[in-house]
Specification:
This protein has 243 residues and is α/β, with parallel strands linked by helices. The chain has a single domain, classed as Rossmann fold, CATH 3.40.50. It contains six helices and 14 strands.
Amino acid sequence: MKIEVLFPEICNLYGDLFNVKYLKECLPDAQIINTSLTDEPYFAKEKPDLIYMGTTTERGQILAVEALAKYAERIRECIEEGVNFFVTGNALEIFCTSIEEEGKEVCKGLGLLDFVAKRKARKRFNSLYLGEFKASDEDIIKIVGFKSLFGYAYGDNTDKKLFETLRGDGINPDEKAEGMRINNFFATYLTGPVFVLNPPFTKWFIRKVLGAEDAALAYEDAAMDAYRARVEEFSDTNTGIYY
């Protein structure tokens, strides 16, 4: 199994690379391919089993768009062909039509998601998050996490949502639909080690998306204990969502 990590030198703002490190613990035979800003991506000519990209700075977004612009159609082709992606934090905005700040366009996005990202200068939104993921009609998985961002995405997410929000914001304060899923392209505004925090979702992802049916979760007992405690805490209406 080959996992390509895009721009780890700038896309690890909240420790997002621990998503990849945890996958490696669960899938010890996986090969990690780190693609820097100056490299030709592995996906340009091959099909990795997973392409991962994490949170970056606002300047990092621009650098990432510049590095990926000439591969936009190849990325579109990969999404249409069902290549697996997992994108966290503001990295999802790189795939949008454009990024704006105070009503002015900062840069074009890759144009692969029909959304516009809108920032508010010097106003960071920090929150806890509690939501649900529909793994199947019978299996609904609680999702916990954190958000820290300067803006939100705007567009019709009705048929593309990844999670349904229970507490916190969706892709923007007016939406309960959080994240985006198109075929096997998964993107969420959640930051940091999403896989570590959500072992039931991670087990589903590894087995059903990556196809490693017999894979075991690393440190599963400890991860599940922490997960159950966090779900209970985030479900408590006395717990403040914003801080």
